[in-house]
Design brief:
CATH architecture of the largest domain: Orthogonal Bundle
Strand content: 5-15%
Strand order of the largest sheet: 1-2
Oligomer: single chain
Mean pLDDT: 87
CATH superfamily of the largest domain: Winged helix-like DNA-binding domain superfamily/Winged helix DNA-binding domain
Largest sheet: 2 strands, antiparallel
Number of strands: 4
CATH topology of the largest domain: Arc Repressor Mutant, subunit A
Number of helices: 15
Structural class: mainly alpha
Order of helices and strands: HHHHHEEHHHHHHHEEHHH
């Protein structure tokens, strides 16, 4: 199973994006204060560390299920999904993988004998013990980008951003993992911002591209990809979408006609001018933090993303 159990919704980083995220990531002017973009960059860095540190035969979501089942009585799949902030589809896939390997088994739900629940087998307990070393190595790798006490501070802020997606039943060991908080906050903010942008016919990735192009006009698609920390293929799709909307133009370089440079149109600048109202309307629903907390979250994310 390896690392396939990723949550749907926000886009998964490509292999090229994961490779780029293994080192410090420069931030485009204007996007270095954007929580949504910073969470995306933090998510790619966390995913890159996961791929580098966690063996292919270990899955962090499966580890979360085994850890939760090791706390007390059997749990239903709905209870597991709620506590770990997983979709039913992802939870079903994870539990099927665990059952195939006899790491969990179905039993009658002690709170409702008409339904079924899952319990951890002795083999599952042994697997959780083996995987714990790898998961703690991942946590140490992510924490190494921050100062003393900052990983716990950032995790706490991220979980508040992700609420109410993350249920109160998440084990303290899982909830305190930096990668868990980054992933859940990224998915939550992406979903909320995408919903707020629907009236403008924009997606979060379009906003990032327009913002970057405003601060660095007349750059190439390759340069835009580096500024956004994304792949060349993703940038082509972004620019195609913006060009179709009349917000960006590709123009031939007057010196080298083989090169196309990107320019924000008047319509693109007008659409960007509407964004502060969208962000204000999202307000607390977007981040769930007050101004001082949001500022602190931004500073910690910048440090995490840009650290060597």
């Amino acid at each position: 199973m390896g690392h396939v159990a990723r949550e749907p919704g926000a886009p998964r980083p490509s292999d090229a994006e994961l490779a780029a995220a293994r080192g410090p990531q420069p931030l485009a002017p204007g996007l270095d204060r954007s929580p949504g973009h910073l969470l995306w960059r933090a998510h790619t860095r966390s995913a890159a560390a996961l791929d580098a540190v966690i063996p292919e035969d270990v899955d962090v979501h499966a580890y979360g299920v085994l850890t939760l089942l090791g706390l007390d009585e059997p749990r239903s799949q709905q209870e597991l999904a709620t506590a770990l902030a997983l979709s039913r589809t992802s939870l079903t896939r994870v539990t099927a993988w665990l059952r195939e390997r006899a790491l969990v088994e179905r039993v009658r739900n002690p709170r409702d004998r008409r339904s079924w629940a899952l319990t951890r087998t002795p083999e599952g307990a042994a697997a959780a013990d083996r995987w714990r070393t790898d998961v703690r190595r991942l946590q140490a790798e992510l924490a190494s980008h921050l100062g003393p006490g900052e990983p716990a501070e950032l995790s706490a802020l991220l979980l508040r951003v992700a609420a109410p997606d993350v249920g109160p039943g998440a084990p303290a060991e899982i909830a305190g993992m930096l990668g868990f908080g980054i992933a859940k906050a990224h998915h939550a903010v992406h979903r909320r911002f995408a919903s707020a942008l629907e009236p403008l016919d924009l997606e979060p990735r379009h906003v990032g591209a327009l913002t970057a192009l405003t601060g660095a006009p007349a750059i190439t698609q390759a340069e835009l990809a580096r500024l956004l920390g994304t792949s060349a293929a993703s940038v082509v799709q972004m620019v195609d979408g913006l060009e179709d909307r009349g917000l960006v133009e590709r123009r031939r370089d007057p010196v080298d006609r083989r090169v196309q440079r990107l320019h924000v149109t008047d319509a693109g600048h007008a659409r960007l001018a509407e964004l502060p109202d969208v962000r204000r309307s999202a307000g607390e629903a977007l981040l769930g933090l007050d101004d001082a907390e949001a500022e602190r979250l931004t500073a910690l994310l910048v440090r995490f993303v840009t650290a060597p």
